[in-house]
Specification:
Layout lengths: L33 H12 L4 H16 L11 H28 L26 H29 L12 H26 L2 H12 L14 H8 L12 H11 L1 H6 L5 E4 L2 E5 L3 H9 L11 H4 L8 H15 L3
Antiparallel strand pairs: 1-2
Length: about 325
Amino acid sequence: MEDRSDPAPMSREWNYHPDLPLADPSVFKWPPDPRFLGHWFVRNWLMLSERVILVLLATLCWWLFYPSLERAQDLAFGWIFQVWIVNLGLMIGIAGGLHWFFYIRQAQGRKLKFDHRDPVRGNRLWNFSNQVHDNVFWSLGSGVMQLTLFQVIIMWLMANEFVPTISLATNPILFVSGLVLLPIWSAFHFYWVHRLLHVPFLYKRVHALHHRNVNIGPWSGLSMHPVEHLLYLSSLLIHCVIPSHPIHLYFHVIYLGPGAAMSHTGYEDLLFKDRRRLALGTFYHQLHHRYYECNYGNQEMPWDRWFGTFHDGSEDATKETRARKTRMYKNA
């Protein structure tokens, strides 16, 4: 029988963390390391990974569930409602499924769970005095609505040839390259939008809603203030400039929306028979939710290291981050 007993916590601060200090897994190292880049590509695109799963899901939705571009030539309630229903179903299926697996069924116990704590109940900091219910409200309300709005506008632009489009048959290299580069573009966009949201004026009025989730879970990934949703999802506007196929758009939509639930599970990996089968959350971003003014981007982009906001998990990095936060808010 599989052993699902909870392991002993690694420290007073963390139930689990990877080896510290965190290494540099960025694909933008200089000089380039072909072996490292090859391993990165294999791990992300030639094995079962979050990105491969989301591309397959986007292709399935393009084939079976989202309306055709022909229907999108005219703005009509029917096909717009269909897009919203599909996005709602994806969000409930992915975030709800992960929440059920990790936090209701507790199929993995606390193995590879970063934080000691469970989701908060009975605290009026949260709408409905419940962290999960609060997160569901913002994710399915403003989150899915704005995700659908961006998608509908871009589908209408594609359908009427107001923006450049491609197909796999006519441009296979650009088609495949687009899938590989979209997460990197999203990481670039996310870093700068995230830095903007941490300006004290916007942080207090907008981003603080998301940061109530110090102990994150699947539903916290897209739980944001409507202004933050607008800024975060503006990453999708790249499809108005760069030639895309609807599959690119749908992959990007799922990556930013339901995909955020996968990166916010609060667990590093999904285990099957005690073997790591699927990478999910990262300690890199968990540190951001704990200490706020650090690790604004993700591990693939070098911005935090270049601009001195990288937290490697060490005590010295925690002290520096707290000092930076004090300086930021001193005159705010």
